[in-house]
UniProtKB/TrEMBL annotation:
Major site of localization recorded for this protein: other
Places the protein is found: Cell projection, Cilium; Membrane
Gene: Tmem80
Protein name per UniProt: TMM80 protein
GO BP terms, alphabetized: non-motile cilium assembly
Keywords: Cell projection, Membrane, Transmembrane, Transmembrane helix
One cellular-component annotation, GO: ciliary transition zone
Annotated TM spans: 9-30, 46-67, 79-104, 110-134
Lineage: Eukaryota, Metazoa, Chordata, Craniata, Vertebrata
PANTHER family linked to this entry: GEO07735P1-RELATED-RELATED, TRANSMEMBRANE PROTEIN 80
Matching Pfam families: Transmemb_17
Membrane topology: Multi-pass membrane protein
Length: 135
């Protein structure tokens, strides 16, 4: 009953998030050097990026853990996938923050956040289908 497309998407999303984190961090540093980035907003933007990284690690480790073997999808357990789905909501909110509400939004921010939101949406649909199949 486990979903192969979902498992592949977990892996791809894990790799993409590493790129996303590094690109967003580099863009925040770039914006702080090139633009007059208010000091009051630089700290919160960086803090939210690191909070998002922690959520992403939790989210993916509940669904697919590289070190301890697979959970959720491969063991056909609803609870880890459901909790991962709930954490995805927090990640989506933070991604929307970086897409819309951060101090400066570059075109590159729009592109990488749109891809991330698309993968979150696709992953969420596949999680709901997998949970329904497990039940």
């Amino acid at each position: 009953l486990s979903s192969v497309p979902l498992q592949i998407l977990f892996y791809v999303n894990g790799i993409y998030y590493i790129f996303y984190f590094l690109a967003t961090l580099a863009m925040i540093v770039y914006k702080s050097q090139v633009f007059s980035y208010p000091d009051d907003f630089l700290g919160p933007d960086l803090a939210l990026l690191f909070i998002m990284a922690i959520l992403e690690v939790l989210r993916l480790s509940l669904a697919f853990c590289f070190l301890r073997g697979s959970k959720g999808n491969l063991t056909e357990e609803e609870a880890p996938l459901g909790l991962s789905l709930v954490i995805t909501v927090g990640s989506v909110i933070l991604s929307v923050y970086f897409l819309v509400w951060q101090t400066y939004v570059l075109k590159a921010d729009v592109i990488i956040n749109a891809v991330l939101l698309f993968t979150y949406g696709l992953e969420s649909v596949l999680k709901v289908i997998a949970i329904a199949a497990f039940v």
